[in-house]
Amino acid sequence: MLELQGLTRRFGTVTAVDAVSLAVPDGQMVGIVGRSGAGKSTLLRMVNRLTEPSAGRVLWDGRDITALRGRALRDWRADCAMIFQQFNLVQRLDVLTNVLIGRLNRRRGPLAGLTGLLGLFTAEERARALGLLDRFGLAEAALQRAETLSGGQQQRVAICRALMQEPKVILADEPIASLDPANAEAVMQALRQANREQGLTVLCNLHQIEVARAHCDRILGLRQGRVVFDGPPAALDAEREEAIFGDTAPAAPGPSGPARAPAPPGAALVR
């Protein structure tokens, strides 16, 4: 289980994430929605430790992730794969090699990264990468340069690269923000497929609330760094949408407490 306990990030006088506490059971797909600047990206980056929290903790199966350093932190980042809006592929390399790069986080020793960059991947690793590409309809593009693919195809390659890490958690930061509706749907289906078939926990930042409704088990609404909604898609009615996206300021949060399980239907509006 992934737990956030009072997770907070301040940038000077600005509080980007404000005492967020929640628990995400293994295998759940959570859509995090909110306006630009609501704190969605900062929240995910703290889970992966790309951004350090100002206060609070991240726990995975009871282990304090915020206390990890060195090799232990690198292992967590392998277990907790990030997918970005910008794809972050090496455009001049072929698709297969881009997927294989996902194995570098699992290599150990001072020459681990160098051996990967020299193309010294094992036959087993290459077979696994090809299997992932085939699973997401990209096997025929394996030897094409990444720059020749559409945006939606590149994002699916990025998902394959993340899965090559054999992660336990996938953090997707606005993975469909720059895609047309058809490619956006293909990418969300790929994430949902990974979630269902491999039981991976997925946290996905989204602007489009209907996409979150269609693909996620649970929706988390952020407003000015605070959780203002936490519950199943069916509970996200007009009042709750207004709390997330409306023009009025959100109500002050109550006293922070321990991490909580998913909110039950009808009790999802956080005031």
UniProtKB/TrEMBL annotation:
Q: Where is this region: Disordered?
A: 247-271
Q: Which Pfam families match?
A: ABC_tran
**A cellular component term (GO) from this record?**
membrane
Top-rank lineage group of the source organism: Bacteria
Q: Which UniProt keywords apply?
A: ATP-binding, Cell membrane, Membrane, Nucleotide-binding, Translocase, Transport
The biased composition feature labelled Pro residues covers: 252-265
Q: Name one GO molecular function term.
A: ATP hydrolysis activity
Q: Where are the transmembrane segments?
A: none
What sequence ranges are listed for the domain ABC transporter?
Answer: 2-249
Q: What is this protein called?
A: Phosphonates import ATP-binding protein PhnC
Q: Which organism is it from?
A: Caldovatus sediminis
Q: Gene for this protein?
A: phcN
